[in-house]
Amino acid sequence: MTAKDKVDKALIPIIAGRTPDEQLECIRKYGNHSITPMLRRTLLSGLDIARIKPAAENLVIFGCYILFSMPLLIRDYLKLLDVLGIDHTYLEQEYCCGSPVRRSTTDTAQEQALQASREFMRLNRDLARQKEAKTIAYCCMGCAHTAKSFFPDEAGHHMYYFELLFDKIEQKSLSIAPTT
């Protein structure tokens, strides 16, 4: 068994037996290659973060996995943004960056997956502009890296989500309540 065979077998649960074309079409239709919009909305509502502002200075992109693998972290992150007074919103439907599909393709499908990934990232960027967002904060490091590589002239407007917090925290004085 070659290393490539091992990788392909490891990806079977992610791709659920679907071809790269089927996964890309799923992203075009639902915004995600594996999770339905209904499950996403239900999770956001269950976490009590279902509000979406029509416009904000910052847009948070959850990504296709982080919201589902670490939902409490995302909920608490959004609470921190609120506490720090960081204006933010998110999208009703965002688009997966396509990285999981790119990783599951063969050499012949790589270029098609790469072009689709650019398409999806442009959709997110254009939706962010419609919401008047100056910054897009990605909860997924892969999405942040992909955005910076696809939009090098705009790299300063695309960041990993903790960077948005760190910029604001650096401007704050931290204090501890007195204790006895």
Main β-sheet description: 4 strands, parallel
Strand order of the largest sheet: 2-1-3-4
Radius of gyration: 18 Å
Low-pLDDT stretches are 3-7, 9-13
Describe this structure as you would to a colleague.
This protein is an alpha/beta fold. It has nine helices and four strands. A four-stranded parallel sheet has the order 2-1-3-4, sandwiched between helices. Helix 2 runs parallel beside helix 7. It is globular.
Structural features:
disordered N terminus, 9 helices, 55% helix, alpha/beta, 180 residues
What is the gist of this entry?
The protein is an alpha/beta fold and 180 residues long. 55% of the residues lie in helices and 8% in strands.
Topology of this protein?
Blueprint: H1 3-15, H2 20-30, H3 37-46, E1 58-61, H4 66-69, H5 71-83, E2 88-90, H6 99-103, H7 107-130, E3 135-138, H8 141-150, E4 158-160, H9 161-169
Parallel strand pairs: 1-2, 1-3, 3-4
